[in-house]
Specification:
single chain; alpha+beta; Pnp Oxidase, Chain A; Beta-Lactamase; six-stranded antiparallel sheet; 31% helix
Amino acid sequence: MIPLESISRCFEGVVPATLSTCSADGIPNISNISHVQYVDARHVAVSRQFFNKTTRNILENPQASVTVWDPVTFELYILTLRYDRSETSGPTFEHMATRIEAIASHTGMTGIFRLLAADVFEVVSIYHLTAHLNPPEASDELEPGVPDMSPEPAALPPAQREELWVLQRISSRMNQAPELEALLHEVLNSLNEDFGFTHAKVLLVDETGRRLFTVASRGYEESGVGSEVVFGEGLIGTVARDRRILRVNQMESGLRYGRAVRAAVVSAAAGTPLRPEIPLPGLVDAQSHLVLPLLVRGRLVGVLALESRNPAAFATWHEAFMGIVADQVATGIERLAVSDAEDPVAAGRRARAGAKEEPVAPSPSPSSPRRRDFVFYQNDDCVFVDGEYLIRNVPGRILWKLLKAHQETGRSEFTNRELRLDPGLGLPSLRDNLESRLILLRQRLAQKCPDVRLPSRGRGRFAVEIDGELALTERASA
């Protein structure tokens, strides 16, 4: 029999599959299904959601067949199946449920469009229906008496594993990053240059532990830095909540299915309240998504989200391979985010020099400095600049503290440690994500107010640079 793993591309959902069953009295039923999941070398799983007739047929007659297409070669395979079991928990069920719940969340069908069970089938046989379209390659016949000197397959040199070198490069880049902002920059660069993933973003958990905020992105017209995602909302929120990798190819197909179910629910029960559809973040026309949780000892620190316009951009092996990358990214974030110690080499050099600051090249400034009007609203810790929203919550409180200190005392050098020790900022005592908040704050200033900058002055230290004049106003509420 054809090895099941050799046709793994057929289970990506790029081309919908067809499931055929038959009742005990011989009445056939054919259903189009968006996804058949590989379980192991002898089993596949099919999601049970609304397949009432299919389910009845399987219980009466546990035989079925499923037709799948290779999305690259368009070869057709027919799998003869025998029903084995239904699972309502466990890895197979949870993997399928995560994908379905993410689609449901986007189409406003959370709690309605859901996985009831994962029906697991034993694969009895695989028939390659289009095998005749690929004639065997011609082989040179040896002349009589001439020994066959071609090497045995085992003696052939192993295939070059370029992905291992890529993994080594990204690991080296992350290990050499002196601070969190540099680490995120290297990760996104490597994903683009080494992996060919041109659209990627990193989101970190905020201080509430219930939301993610975008701290870095690459490949988008608008960076989206500062945008938030609630746990359980959409693909990214679902991964954050469930802490499992989610890979979706042919996203538009899944959304069409979810929208069709939504339309049927609305028409069947007029007035049924449904949540609004959630727009997909990032690429409007993305067809493939790979979203990975960033975990450290089981604790979520963030999410790495990749997407592509290619409907078959992410294969099964990407889950395992990129899972290793995600683990290293999470470890690097943890290593740099929890440490507030200054660079010991730089600190020692300053001590020997009598605690004099080392000269630092000034950051480029606009050619015509202007007056900036900052307003801080106390009720929601929100900062506006020149009448436009800039930042809120913890980064807003941090910025206001820095601007006031600079204006009142003329200070221009600050440390992460003093921010952590300031009770007015409301930072958690453990894992406060301060470095990531400073990154977010720097990027929002660069976008909305480049006259104000927070350049790094070494690990655990930064400066406040201001061009022109600032007017600071504090109000109770908007």
